[in-house]
């Protein structure tokens, strides 16, 4: 010990020097040398290239003319799962009836399995491969179907909703498989009609309840965003009752010079009806609509106070002058545990740039109500129809008016103390060295309610989208931070789940 | 005489037989052998083919991307006038400033002359070669830019407004020239920006007041429809104050799930503002807007009682259940001598088929007021802006709102006892064997007011469109009856004018 009395000090200095070379974030992480994370970091380029290939397929399920692209997207996904060693069934779910009465085939649904060891738990993941409509002229900075990397973000339609999230999961599986470390059996349940209401899916679940879906322990939906940079685990989602109001005043569009002052214009009626839906503060004016909303429980508001969400920063990011509610808790509750109504647009009127002096003959207003527990879509439908029909009748217009509820998706809410939520929280801490936010989604994951109702298994929404991903808007993106970190999160979640 | 006592009787029977072979309509016409009419009848196929060629050029002036097509249309028109022996100047009228701040060249204006004999009167004709937007998916039965003949009608964008009308005039000139019978000097003044407000035209008229426009006796505008099968000569037109209301709530479109209940939605504000414009019966709610409307003169209502217009037939043709006014006179007066307001559509919102759950960030509502003597566009602009700004301020929305009057075209009204109106009435009687209806247009012919103000010459609107031509709508058409009869009408009018 006397030979070299200064050694311990020398070692200390040397080690201290080495420590200074290591980036701070690694120091904070409790498992800096997690092999699976290293593997994932080493394959980032490949993951981004695959996302680029998948975004390029215009799988817009709302446009019947793009049905072939949706089908192609399902095939490409199938091929990748086969590469991972999975087995895949492409389930036929019948036909879609279009507004004009024609029918076209619905895209097949992927029912895949990877592993079936008896001693391992089985997790079923749900995701979707279809996207919302997108056109560059809507205000995109770049072509929506060409993935563009800029300032740490990956821009493109579906980058976040939901191609990026499904790919993060598939890459997590690939990394675990390649490391010979897949600790669970996995089922993959991937559809192509989510953005238009998951046509045909409920019947498929019912039909496959005792076969594909029979031996499942956990269900995870990979289609939700976080509320901030901090990962969020979602235990609830609002529903969606999507309506159209169609008003027709003449057989064909008319010139506003030749006929203005002669006809009861369809647009006037539609605008009047749409204007009767909410007040200036967004409060829904449909009588009775708030009656079924679950009352606030005793400590419920506190849940929202703890969530990481910077109101002012969000406001500034969105370019919004003022939010409808001032406090963080109020705002978050109106985002996810109270209903809201949005008017999306009008079909059949002049929507181009410039001027057109037309009296549109038939116009279709579109709006939706995000409803919450315990609002039943069928009740909402009746309330909305009764109200609008009575408003229209008050107006005494001679025009034809028809209201249709196009989508009637239920809200969903579960118990966040179930075991797989613990696994997910531990995975978040391992990957991001932070406590996850426990949140409810403002959007709709109809599948959550349906799967839980039919299968009666624990269900969790573990998405990896960012709060500002602009899903459904222009310049949709996912950050590389979320995309790669999310891949690690799925891998870690499966490891944690196996060790429960 | 005794040699053949039965001869007179024989001749009578023979002539009676011959008379039976002559079609009825010729018998009713006072000038059955008018050579110019025979010439025109003999060239119908050629006239229709040329209309087909011209309709195929997509000269939509509202779409900057189609500016080259408008330019091409002007070139083709120039070439035909040169063929007729005319001289043509293509007048440069400068640039158009687009909404995004960019500028693009305006299409040139045709200033042409055919003949300059000192002993002949000079008539200046105005028409336009640009068209309204048209897409087959708007509800056209056939491609809007392919002229299709069906049941005596010629369908295609611009068939009636205004390519068909200008071509009828040019063919009338061609027929008179080929018969060596052009009895007047003709000037042709043809533009390519009428459908978007005749940008740059007023300055051109001012600049050319003492040159091209200096030695004109009469001005005729060939851009109006009749009110029935009966030809109409137009002595007045409404103006057009076209407005946009732009409301912006966020930087980009938002997902209605993620943000519904958080933001003051731009669509809600816009719908509210649009709804405040008229009541259920189309009455304009902008304060003071009716104050400047010229009061009804003593016998004015009688003018409308004599016009041929079958209210029930019109209603049925349009597929309209009920008109805003019941009596023929009331309806016609609200069509052309009282103002009306039409809402045309919304730019920036979801306008496709299917469902999109978007909260549009920036929406632009478009509406226009067809104003009448003595409503000044600048006064209308102030009234509308003041009213909407006060309504918006009442709403207390934090969003940005901006109102713009994009078009401010004046109404026009003249004295229908001027000499050229007599020539036109005589021409109508010669061609159609009927008394013309003296009418006012519900639409806008901004050029009428401008030309009259600058040149101080007698101006008449002698159009040949039909009442159901659906100009600005789907399936625009002109009937062969109007197209060919209209060609004869222009030829006869010039002959009658020369004999005044």
From TrEMBL, chains A, B:
GO terms for biological process: proteolysis. One of its GO terms (molecular function) is metal ion binding. Residues 1-28 form the signal peptide. Keywords: Hydrolase, Metal-binding, Protease, Signal. Residues 236-394 form the Peptidase M20 dimerisation domain. GO terms for cellular component: cytosol. InterPro entries: Cyt/Met_Dipeptidase, Peptidase_M20, Peptidase_M20_dimer. Pfam families: M20_dimer, Peptidase_M20. PANTHER family: BETA-ALA-HIS DIPEPTIDASE (PTHR43270), BETA-ALA-HIS DIPEPTIDASE-LIKE (PTHR43270:SF16). This is Peptidase M20 dimerisation domain-containing protein. It comes from Hymenochirus boettgeri (Congo dwarf clawed frog).
């Amino acid at each position: 010990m006397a030979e070299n009395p200064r050694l311990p000090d020398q070692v200390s200095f040397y080690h201290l020097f080495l420590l200074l070379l290591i980036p701070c974030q690694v120091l904070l992480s409790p498992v800096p040398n997690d092999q699976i994370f290293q593997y994932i970091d080493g394959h980032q380029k490949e993951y981004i290239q695959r996302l680029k290939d998948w975004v390029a397929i215009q799988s817009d399920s709302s446009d019947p003319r793009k049905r072939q692209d949706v089908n192609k997207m399902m095939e490409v996904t199938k091929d990748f799962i086969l590469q991972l060693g999975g087995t895949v069934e492409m389930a036929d779910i019948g036909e879609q009836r279009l507004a004009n009465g024609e029918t076209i085939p619905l895209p097949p649904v992927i029912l895949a399995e990877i592993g079936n060891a008896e001693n391992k738990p089985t997790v079923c993941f749900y995701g979707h491969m279809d996207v919302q409509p997108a056109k560059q002229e809507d205000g995109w900075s770049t072509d929506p179907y060409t993935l563009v990397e800029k300032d740490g973000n990956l821009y493109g339609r579906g980058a976040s909703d939901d191609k990026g999230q499904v790919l993060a999961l598939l890459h997590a599986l690939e990394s675990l498989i390649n490391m010979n470390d897949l600790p669970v059996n996995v089922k993959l349940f991937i559809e192509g009609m989510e953005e238009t209401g998951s046509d045909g899916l409920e019947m498929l679940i019912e039909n496959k309840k005792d076969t594909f879906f029979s031996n499942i322990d956990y269900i995870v939906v990979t289609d939700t965003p976080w509320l901030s940079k901090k990962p969020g685990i979602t235990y609830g989602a609002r529903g969606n009752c999507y309506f159209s109001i169609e008003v027709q005043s003449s057989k064909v569009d008319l010139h506003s010079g030749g006929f203005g002052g002669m006809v009861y214009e369809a647009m006037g009626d539609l605008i009047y009806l749409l204007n009767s839906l909410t007040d200036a503060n967004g409060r829904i004016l449909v009588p009775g609509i708030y009656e079924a909303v679950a009352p606030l429980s005793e400590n419920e508001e506190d849940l929202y106070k703890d969530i990481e969400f910077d109101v002012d920063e969000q406001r500034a990011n969105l370019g919004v002058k003022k939010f409808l509610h001032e406090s963080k808790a109020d705002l978050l509750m109106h985002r996810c545990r109270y209903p809201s109504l949005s008017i999306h647009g009008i079909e059949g009127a002049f929507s181009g740039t410039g001027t057109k002096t037309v009296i549109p003959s038939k116009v279709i207003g579109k709006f939706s109500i995000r409803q919450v527990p315990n609002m039943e879509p069928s009740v909402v439908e009746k309330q909305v129809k009764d109200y609008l029909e009575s408003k229209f009748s008050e107006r005494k217009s001679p025009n034809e008016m028809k209201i249709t509820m196009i989508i009637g998706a239920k809200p969903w809410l579960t118990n966040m103390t179930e075991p797989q939520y613990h696994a997910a929280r531990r995975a978040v801490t391992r990957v991001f060295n932070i406590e996850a936010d426990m949140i409810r989604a403002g959007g709709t994951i109809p599948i959550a309610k349906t799967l839980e109702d039919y299968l009666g298994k624990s269900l969790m929404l573990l998405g990896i989208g960012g709060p500002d991903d602009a899903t459904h808007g222009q310049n949709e993106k996912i950050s590389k931070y979320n995309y790669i970190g999310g891949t690690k999160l799925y891998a870690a979640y499966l490891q944690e789940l196996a060790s429960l």
